[in-house]
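step: validate -> pass
step: tokenize input -> pass
step: predict -> running
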Amino acid sequence: MSENSSEPKLILMKCKACGATVQVNSEQTELICPYCKSKELILDSDAVKAEKVRSQAYVEVEKEKLKHDKEMNEASIEENEINEFKKGKGKVFLIIFAAIFAISSFVAFKHSHSMAGVIAILQTAMLIASFMIGMHYIKVKMKWVKPVLTILAFLMIFPYYTEYQKYDNVHYDYEDDEPEHSANEKLKWPTKGLAAKLPDPESKYGYVEENDSEELNVEATKYSHAKYKKYLAKCKDKGFTDVLS
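step: predict -> pass
step: emit ->
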């Protein structure tokens, strides 16, 4: 009988009444001697206990073997995936664009485009996460996570561009092509001249170029086009119509 058989194991036992050797299986709970017809409980028999321990040990060994084979198979699959990612163009693609987005973030913050800078940081983080998933530094069960992160990072180019173009940051004097005023210069709204008769634009940044009783010229930085339209409407409500739109 083979080791893998699920059939009961045969055990040789001696009858306590007549001393005859009798064959029984390991699942029997009672021995009936074919010679003297005496009955004997064998639940606690040393031979039965030994056979049960032996069978249980075999089951445990088989379980450990299956577990080890599964782990080796998973490790082999993971190694193949890492090697394919290293050899493919995807790794280089992610590294290059992660660097581009990081530089874009630096440029955006330097020119006071804070929201655009935050978007570029998120783009960089997404591509770095995709790279780490590809290298299996980050373990994920769902295979779609890596491509989704990559796609989202590139879709965010549109809000980045929108935020970057949203404000006019610096006014230039084109004679020397050097900035005349800083984008972060605080706007102080005049209390005299024509400015005193017009509503405050509620802009935190900018400067006043000219302000007298007849003319007012103000440069507002970090001021959206939508806010400017609302300000023009307020000016017209006060009776001023000679305004640049």
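step: describe -> The longest helix spans residues 46-87.
step: cleanup -> pass
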